[in-house]
Structure formats: structure tokens, C-alpha cells
Amino acid sequence: MIRFACFIVIIGILVCGCTGKSREPAIHVEKAAPAFQLYALRYGISKMASGYIFRGDKTNTRLDFHWLFYLLKYRDYILLIDTGTSDPSYIKSYGISFIPPLNLLNALKLNPEDITHIIITHCHFDHIGGIADYPDARIIIQEDELNAFYKKPFSRDIADWLRKNKQIFTFTEQYTLWDFITVKKIGGHTIGSSVVFIETGDEKILLAGDECYFPRNFLKDIPSAAVYNPEANGKFLDFLRQFEGKIYTFHDPGIVPDKTENPLELFISEPWKNRD
Known about the structure:
This protein is of the alpha/beta class. The chain has helices at 50-53, 88-93, 101-107, 125-128, 143-151, 156-164, 215-219, 230-242; strands spanning 7-15, 35-49, 62-74, 77-81, 97-98, 117-119, 138-142, 168-171, 174-177, 181-185, 194-200, 203-207, 246-248, 266-268.
């Protein structure tokens, strides 16, 4: 296993507004609500064929490809958006320069039992592969996505662990958490792949899952080759071009810097809308 310095990015510190209804136990949010922090955690770096990232690309270029998940702190809650993976077979297969995701939590002085909630955008190995590290967390996942995973899991151990878990919350179209986070089904990348909206007044953030890999996917309307439903994915890419907010995905090499003198330094990332 190749080790490299772990990198964590603070995406933003925002004041939380109060909209919509939550299926979680009610939390009263004052007008001047506490701030939250959103981090991007990069646990791997590899190369990926350009034809996989951009459908129809014939250049056969090997592009930098990062492996990320996100962490949000709000009051006494710690939310993960996806979990990353530590499966050595996938790490070897994809040639990932790797650091265990739990090491990144340790850098933030967090332990697995500190994680209270997890949103899963979809059930590919790099997004749900570390789920069993967090036995106490409430898990939010789209129901078609979960059922498809049960029928054809990449890991029977993870599928069995999920079946026994009593803290799974499923949804059909969307799920609202704490009145300012909405998980919405898109169903383009996989049958139930979802994205995460964070809205606090005038501030809007969108975590796009793997509906796109790089900014170019939506800016130039070039979908990836890994699409389950091209029509649903295409509509979402159209939406992204009109979205007036910050957009982040889970493989963009521009989100977390490659090098730093201090491996535990926290960086502020520029959102995609501010980059070409």
C-alpha cells in the first residue's frame, strides 16, 4: 500500500437557515443558527482513462483522478457524505495511492463512533465501502439504490451488515435533514444515485455524487461513460449549468491540493463555478 500525506479541505463555514421539513427528530433552529463546517477529505489519488471520465473521448489519455468523501459538522452532529473505501483489492486494481479514510478522521480528532449520520450517494465501492466502520450512525440512502445493491452487491459482507442494521432511513425521491440539507434522487449514474443540496439563505452548495466527475462534464455537456440512465443524467447536467451555487463532486483533482508543507493543514477550496 502506497502512503502519502493526508489532505483535508474546509469547503465552507456557513450559517444555517430553516426551510422545509425533516424526517429526523425535530430540531429547533434559531434565526441566528450555529455555523457548520464542510470538509472535503481525499483518501486516494490515481490515474483514470479519459474515455471513462468523458464519454466518446478517443485520446486514451490518463488523467489525474482523486478519491474523495465529505464531512459536515453541525452542532453536536457529524455527518459523512459517503465513506470512501479501504478494500485492498480495489485499491490495487485502480492503482490508488491511498491513506485509510479513518486516518483522515483522526486528523480531525474524530473517531468512528463520533459519526452520527451518513448519506450514501450511491452503492459503488468507493462511496459505501467503508460503511461498516460506523455502526452507530444513521444511514440515509435512496431505496432503489439499496435494493439494487442487495440484489447484486460488490461485497456480500457489506450487504449482510446493512440488512442487519436498524438505523437505515430510505427515501424515494428526496430526504430532508435538519431543514437545510436535502438528498435528492437523480438516477443517472446508477438506478438511485443521489445528490446533496445544502441551502442556507442565499448560500447554495451541491455535492453532485458521481453524476459528473469533473467540471468539464457539465460545463461542456460531456457525460461520463459510467451512466445508467443517460436521459436522467443529461437533465441533471443541464441543471448544473444553470445552478447558482457551489458545485463539488467526488473525483475532481482541483478540490484538494496535491502537495503541502504541512500534511495536516486545512485548505479553503475554490468552488467549481470559480474555475474554468
